[in-house]
Amino acid sequence: MPDKLSPSERSIRMSLIRSKDTKPELVVRKAVWAAGFRYRLHGKGLPGKPDLVFPALRTIVFIHGCYWHAHTCQKGRIPGHNSRFWREKFAANQARDRRNAQRLRRYGWSVLTVWECSLSTAKSRDKSVRNLLNALALRRASKP
Questions:
Q1: pLDDT value at position 16?
Q2: CA separation, residue 89 to residues 26, 70, 83, 86 (Å)
Q3: How far apart are CA 97 and CA 83, in angstroms?
Q4: What share of the chain is helix, strand, coil (3-state, %, to 5)?
Q5: DSSP code of residue 117
Q6: Residue 79 — very low, low, confident or very high, per pLDDT cuts 50/70/90?
Q7: 64 with 114: CB under 8 angstroms?
Q8: 117, 120, 125, 134: which has the highest count of C-beta atoms within 10 A?
Q9: By the 8 A CB rule, do 133 and 31 touch?
């Protein structure tokens, strides 16, 4: 099925997709801040420009959208149209994510990932946020 939009219309539509300050990111940021953890946003000098950087805890948090990072959930499906392109695109995104996480770990950072789908219902959101806060609290407690 051909694309119903012209290339310039498609480009405009795709440019409207946010990479920062997404709803999942704002949910996590609000919960982490309310729990008393302070962070930096979008670490510009770090591989992958992590969403949240906790310098004192040497911890990075990525908040991944299931579609763009090809999660194994329902939201991570490959589109039927132009599926070869999307498979290659998502495989490249996943390889980049792995490289960035490996580099960060080599630099001494702990890397945590929160998936968009884990924030989609109140029950899963509470569990996911609680797990993240517990992980951060453990790092804070083990800090010398």
A1: 56
A2: 26, 9, 10, 5
A3: 21
A4: 55, 10, 35
A5: G
A6: confident
A7: yes
A8: 117
A9: yes
